Amino acid sequence: MLLPDYYEFCCRVKIVAGHDALEKIPELLTERGAKRPLIITDKGVASAGLIDIVSAAQKDRLFADLIADNVPPDSDLRVVNQLAKLYKENDCDAIIAVGGGSVMDTAKGVNIVVSENAEDLMAFSGVGALKRPLKPLIAVPTTAGTGSEVTQVAVIKDHEKHLKMAFGSYFLLPDISVLDSRMTMTMPPLITAMTGMDALSHAVEAYYCLQKNPLSDAHSLAAVRMIYHYLPIVAENPSDRNARLSMAVGACLAGIAFSNSMVGLVHNLGHATGSVCGVPHGICMAIMLPYGLEYNMHKREEAIAGLLLPMAGEAIYRETPPAQRADKVVSLIRQLNADLNTITGGRHARFFKEVKDREGKPLVPREVLPQIARAALSDGASIYNPEDTDYEDNLMVLEAAWEGIPLDRNKIKRG
Amino acid sequence: MSIVKDIPSAKKPLKRAYVGIFLWFTGRAIQAAAKVDKEVKKEFDNLPDDFTFSLGCLPNGPWMVIGKRNGAVKYLGGNPSQHKVHVRLAIKSVDAAFLILSFQESTALATARNRLITDGEVPYALAVIRILDIVEVYLLPKIIAGLAVKRYPKQWSAGRKLGGRIGIYARTILGI
Ligand SMILES: [Fe+2]
What we know:
The complex is a heterodimer of chains A (415) and B (176). By secondary structure, chain A is an alpha/beta fold.
C-alpha cells in the first residue's frame, strides 16, 4: 500500500441527504441566523421545474423567494457582479445555489463579492487570498457529477478580457450540501451517463494520483462502489429514486476524494479536449478514463487492482488472479461505457471519433489531436498525474482514445 | 534566547547554506541550459519577453531569480523584490527546501504534499517546472535525478546527455 509520509485532508461541509432533504433548508438557514437567501440557478434548472420543488419544500416557513435564474452555461464575471448587486439591494443574508458546476462557481463568486465587499473579484483570485468565512452558502446539486458542492475551488471567466480566474480556499466550501433525489430525477439518460462518468473519473483519479492518502482513499473506494453499481441502473431507470440518491451521494464522495487528492491525465487531456473542441466535460471523462488507468498502470498497478473489489464484488475479486486485477478494472470500465452506449441508443460516446454535435458533425476531427496534445501542456492537472507526460505522450494517448483502441503499454515511456 | 530571536534567519545555518549554494548554482545552470539545450531554449522562447521567475524559501529566503532579458536568459541574483516576477515557486520552509533540493522529494510530490507553493499563471508555472526538471537531469547523476523528476528521460541520446552536461557545467562554473 502507498502510505505518504505527509498529507492534508479537509472536508467541512455539512451534508444532508435524502428523498426529502430540501425540507430541511429553512431549519438549516435558521441555525445560521439567515432569513433571506438569494437562490442562484440557471434557466434549464428552473424550466425543469426544480426550483418549484425547492420552493414548495419550504412550505409556509419564512422564506424570501428571491430567485435569479440567469447563470450562463459558462460562469461569467458580469453575471457574478450583477447577482451580487441583486443580493445587496435585497438585503439577502445567505445563498442557495441550485444547479451544476457553473451555478456553483457563480454562487461562490457572488459570495466572495458580497462577503468581502469586493470591487474587483480579481483581487481574490489564486490560492489563499480569502482570509475569513463568507456568507452561508447552501449547495443543491442538480447533477450527480461535478462534486462542486464539496470543493473549495471556483472558476469565473471574464469574457470581456478573455481571462479565466481561479479561486481556491477552504472558505469557498459550501456550508451545507443538500442532496435530494428529486433534483436529479428528471435528468435524461445521456446527461446522467456523462455526469456519472465524470463522478467515476473523480473517484478513480483520486485513487491513483500523487496526493492520494488513506483518507481520500476511503472516500474514493466508497464512491467507486456506489457509482459503478448505480450508474447503469439510473441510466436505464431514470425514476429509480434510491438509485438517484445513491448516485448523488456517490458523486459527493468522489468530490470529497478528488478535492483532497486531485486529478491527473484523464482530466488533463479532458480539459484540453473541452477547450479546443467544445466537447462536454463528462463525455471527455468517459472516453479518457480507461486510458488514464492504462497510462499510469506501471506506477500504480496495486492501487488500480484494488478498485476491482468495490467494482466487481468479493467473488470476482477472489477469482481473478492478482496479476490480472488491474487489467480487469480497465476492461470493466470499457464495458460500462459500452453498456451506457447501448442504454442511450448509441448516443453515449465511447471514443472521440464517435463524438458528434447536434447536426451529427464530428466534434473532434483527427487533425486537431496535435492541438489538444499541446493545449494539455498548459493544464495544471498534469502535475498530480503519477507518470510524467509530454507532447508525444499526450498525442499517443489521444490517438488511441480517438480510435477506441487500448493503449499499447509497451510504447509508454518509462523512467 | 535573545540572540536567536533577533536573528531568526541564523537558524539551521547548514541547511540554509546548502539551499543558498544550490539555488545560486541552479540559477547559473538554467542560464547555461537555455543556451545549450534545445528543449530548454524552446520553453523559454514560448514565454513572454520579460518573463521572470523566482525559486526560493519562505519566509526569509534564500531566493534565486531568472529572467529573459533582450532575448537572453539570465540569472538575476538572489533578490526577487527587485523584479516583477511572473511565476514564484516558494518552498514553505528551509527544512522542506532541503528535502526538495537534496532530491529526496520530486517537485511534483512536494507540490502534492503542500510544501511547494506555486504562484502565477498555470501555463507559465508548468513551463518553469519542465525547465527545472531538464536542468536537474543535466546536473545530477542518474540515480539522484531519478528521484528528483517523475520520469528520468532514458530516451535522451548519449550525445545530448554528455555534451549537454559538459556544456552546462562549464558555463555554470564560468557564469556564461
Ligand atoms: Fe471532472
